[in-house]
Amino acid sequence: MVPLVVIRPEPGCAASLAAARAVRLEAHGFPLFEIVAKSWEAPLPGQFDAILGGSGNAFRHGGRALAPLRELPVYAVGETTAHAARDAGFAIAAIGNGGMQGLLAELHADHRRLLRIAGDERVPLNLPRGVSMEERVVYANVPRPMPPDLVALLRQPAMIALHSAEAARHVAAQCVTHGIRRSLLRLIALSQRIASAAGEGWGEVAVTTLPNDKALLALALQMCQDPGPKGRD
């Protein structure tokens, strides 16, 4: 079986790893990013109707500045983000399952002024007519170099799960640094935008039908029985 490598930061890496092993994938976790809180100042909550949350990290690392915003309901991109928001004391207005853009279709009629709390890398959004949004960056994804065990693993055919465009770019750069042959590796990306960020030269680049781990693992299960590319470069 071709191994699946998960590189997203914790606690997401551990969650993805457990889910992968639960469906009998050979999975290895190497968090190549560390989540670091950033200093920020919260706006007055009366200026907004709701919060847009694209990651649980915004609520786990938002710090004390989140406290005055707890009166605002949260639109969470998925269940994990919703869980983190509830743990931070927020009520949930809606939970999406098709990415941030799709979540905007779930807005209540009286929620027209949005506050987006996010990381330093975030997906651009097209706002519906009559909706305004301000953004606050509350955390950063700090990249880490590949450890020797991961470098050794990627010298053989493997699949890599990509949860962000930043991760795609970082993996590509690290493969150059360590002389890893991209043609031996297959990527599974949560969106076409993420896949495009990885560049060219990979053995295969596949995109999930939905931007979540369930779809990613289903695709990995389909791909893992094939030994994969033998390296054509």
Automatic annotation (TrEMBL):
Its name, as the record gives it, is Uroporphyrinogen-III synthase
Keyword Magnesium included in the entry's annotation = no
- Does this UniProt record's set of keywords contain Transferase? no
Known Pfam families for this protein? Answer: HEM4
Species in which this protein is naturally found: Novosphingobium aquiterrae
Q: Which GO terms describe its molecular function?
A: uroporphyrinogen-III synthase activity
Q: Name the enzyme group at the top EC level.
A: lyase
- Enzyme Commission designation: 4.2.1.75
Its organism's taxonomic lineage begins at:
Bacteria, Pseudomonadati, Pseudomonadota, Alphaproteobacteria, Sphingomonadales
Annotated Tetrapyrrole biosynthesis uroporphyrinogen III synthase domain ranges read: 22-217
Tell me the keywords, alphabetical order: Lyase
